[in-house]
Design goal:
Layout: E1 3-7, H1 14-25, E2 37-41, E3 46-48, E4 51-53, E5 67-70, H2 82-93, E6 97-100, H3 105-110, E7 118-119, H4 126-132, E8 137-138, E9 144-146, E10 150-153, H5 158-171, H6 173-183, H7 212-217, H8 226-233, H9 237-247, H10 252-270, H11 275-281, H12 287-298, H13 302-309
Parallel strand pairs: 1-2, 1-5, 5-6, 6-10, 7-8
Antiparallel strand pairs: 3-4, 9-10
Helix pairs in contact: 1-5, 5-6, 10-12, 10-13, 11-12
């Protein structure tokens, strides 16, 4: 896997492109083994954000690379160019390992490379990827997915995770760790995208549950049940469930658990409260219950989340 080609065209995201160029373009000083031979392939010239890029070769050269990297595609509401899609598909058919960074997954999906496969992209666009390409099994919770010859990453910083993963596959953990140290990033991150996703309330306020949501948020430390919520909303439990699915897209209990987890995240970020105290403040009861639900929902334990996201104001 010694030759790497970056597939570029107008409309690519410059951050993901720069990440791949930095990692595959030059070997760290401590690495003595042969490094990748990197080329940039695309129609010339290419507009990447506010930068003008002059590729080394045309898109037809992608099929000669061992690994093809597709950076993020800026406007996911617009279909990627047919020549880019065709070139990426041809490269894979010729035996190339193809990896997308962030929304570059939309290019791979358009090429049919993700059909029947598990894949990911930036959490803000996973629903759109699912709707547009129903044959793709989109996983919104992971940082990257490795299918062997086809790999996809989540948003922005997850491009680093996937690129380091490729280095680890090709050169081993020691060299991947060396690259990570040069970049001043962890060589491997725990958890998935769920720890970075916000859970806002529905934007609409003209629905039957508009008054219920703030009432619940003020009482998350209480042991609320579906019957309690239905009584406050002055409707039956069955009618409450119907309105929840319409407004929030989920069940009352699942929504309530999500709000408890979100409140726990806020407290972990901004206070020095113990996990036991946070469990009580969020209605989880015990630290063990909070840890179980938090780990399942966010992908990391509460203590690990706090170390990552603790705000300066919350430190002693």
């Amino acid at each position: 896997m010694d030759t790497v080609a970056l597939a570029v065209t107008d409309g690519m995201l410059h951050f993901e492109l720069s990440v791949a160029y930095e990692i595959f373009g030059s070997a760290p000083d401590a690495v003595t083994t042969p490094w990748y031979r990197l080329s940039v392939c695309g129609p010339a010239p290419v507009r990447v954000g506010r930068f003008l890029l002059e590729p080394d070769h045309g898109l037809d050269r992608l099929r000669y690379a061992d690994t093809v990297i597709v950076p993020g595609w800026a406007d996911v509401d617009v279909d990627p160019p047919a020549d880019l899609v065709d070139a990426v598909r041809s490269a894979h058919e010729a035996g190339a390992r193809v990896a997308s960074l962030c929304t570059g997954a939309f290019v791979l999906a358009a090429a049919g490379l993700l059909d029947g496969r598990r894949a990911t992209t930036h959490w803000a666009h996973t629903d759109l990827l699912t709707d547009r390409h129903p044959r793709v099994s989109v996983d919104p919770d992971v940082l990257y997915v490795d299918n062997g010859s086809v790999l996809t990453s989540a948003g922005k910083a997850a491009a680093l995770d996937l690129c380091l993963h490729l280095v680890r596959l090709d050169h081993g953990s020691s060299i991947a760790n060396t690259v990570a140290r040069r970049l001043v990033v962890p060589p491997h991150r725990d958890g998935g995208q769920a720890q970075f996703v916000t859970t806002p309330l529905p934007a609409r306020t003209d629905h039957p549950l508009a008054a219920l949501f703030p009432w619940v948020l003020e009482r998350l430390d209480h042991p609320l049940s579906v019957e309690d919520l239905a009584r406050q909303a002055r409707m039956s439990s069955r009618n409450l469930g119907r309105h929840f699915r319409s407004v929030a897209g989920t069940t009352p209990l699942r929504w309530l658990l999500t709000q408890r987890i979100r409140r726990a995240q806020e407290l972990l970020e901004t206070t020095d409260d113990t996990v036991d105290a946070i469990a009580s403040a969020t209605g989880m009861g015990t630290a063990a219950t909070l840890r179980r639900h938090f780990n399942r929902a966010v992908g990391v334990p509460p203590d690990s989340y706090r170390r990552t996201f603790r705000s300066p104001a919350g430190r002693l």
